[in-house]
């Protein structure tokens, strides 16, 4: 199966499951994801808690 065909299938499955949108990104885009997630979590927890 070609990458583009697989991407379309994944996208359609996400839509069928009720997601508003779905995208596929290169793994290299996730290099700093954990750091950004922790920063956002702290920020929103502080905003919610205060």
What does this structure look like?
- The chain has helices at 3-16, 33-49.
- It is an all-alpha fold and 50 residues long.
- It is elongated.
- It contains two helices and no strands.
- The longest helix has 17 residues, at 33-49.
- The protein has one domain (3-49).
- Helix content is 62%, strand content 0%.
Give the tags:
about 50 residues; mainly alpha; about 0% strand; elongated; 2 helices
- Give me the secondary-structure category: mainly alpha
| Mean pLDDT over all positions | 88
* H/I helix tally: 2
Tell me the count of domains: 1
Distance between the termini: 50 Å
- Give the amount of beta strand, in percent: under 5%
Helix content: 55-70%
Gyration radius (Cα, Å) is 16 Å
Would you list the SSEs in sequence order as H and E?
Answer: HH
Largest sheet: none
Shape: elongated
**Number of β-strand runs:** 0
- Low-confidence runs of at least 5 consecutive residues: none
């Amino acid at each position: 199966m070609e990458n583009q065909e697989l991407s379309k299938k994944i996208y359609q499955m996400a839509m069928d499951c009720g997601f508003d949108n779905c995208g596929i990104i290169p793994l290299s885009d996730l290099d700093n994801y954990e750091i950004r997630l922790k920063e956002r979590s702290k920020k929103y927890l502080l905003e919610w808690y205060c």
